[in-house]
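ok trying this again, last paste got cut off
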Amino acid sequence: MSDISQSEFRLVNGTLLLVFLGLMRHRKAKRVAEDMGLTQPAVSHALTRLRTLYGDPLFLRNSRGLEPTALAREIEPRIRRAVRTLGETLSEPAEFDPADSEITLRIAGFDYELAFLVPALIARTEQVGRGISIHSQTLASGEALEALVQGRIDLAIGFFETLPGRGPHEPFISEDLYIEDYVVTGRARHPLFRHAFDAQTYADSKHVLVTPSGVVRGLVDYSLDALGLHRNVHATVPLFFPALTLLEQSDMIATLPRQVAETFASRFNLEFATLPFPGPTFSVRAVRHRRDSDSPVHGWLINLLRSLHG
């Protein structure tokens, strides 16, 4: 817009638009004043401002009242749409109906979420709302938070060891979906599972560790440190699926999130058992940007993710 048109646009307000629509309906300033609770001089003043703004008389007097000009008839539908749109912004947000929505939701997670949560989420949305598309991508926690800030994703899910900016004036809202723990996993009929085993036997076994960053330590190792034990990490892989395949084909064991083990044990001919010592847990979170705090879509999505556990 030019500087002149911006100046003209600042003359517009809701009262002017409602006066215009009232005159189109009643064709009499007195009726408009009564309907809107204004004085007749106020309606006349609004009409004068409208005429100045559009450079057109807009309404001509005749024996029956005020007759709209050709321009007034032309702009009426657009003004009516503008008033309706403004009214919608001031009303309560509509409830989200997944069965009657066409929407694409962009979700970021890492290997655990993409292996367990996202496939279940897509399957569930197919049942409740076929117009809903789920686009997922692999992002580490820091990258996912940055993508939220930039508006490239709608939701980040997973384990966030640190989550900056959770205060009332900070950009993120974090909600716990559920608490996850770990289990020992190996091939069916693995020698370790034939008898009860202790922490020392567990630590001495050959382990495959899932480590996206390549760091040969995980949450479990901090629990072992308290017992004075060290895990025998024989192999590392960056993702769960290579680890599951390796377990099926070897005598190595892995310490996996319970949901992963329960979901894939039968497919990879595996079995699992509780850790023989007090193991760690972690919270699986859904993180959104504060600008989406009142979004019914985000609220529905988080509730749906929560329902997938248990």
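PB: full thing came through this time. The chain is about 45% helix and 20% strand.
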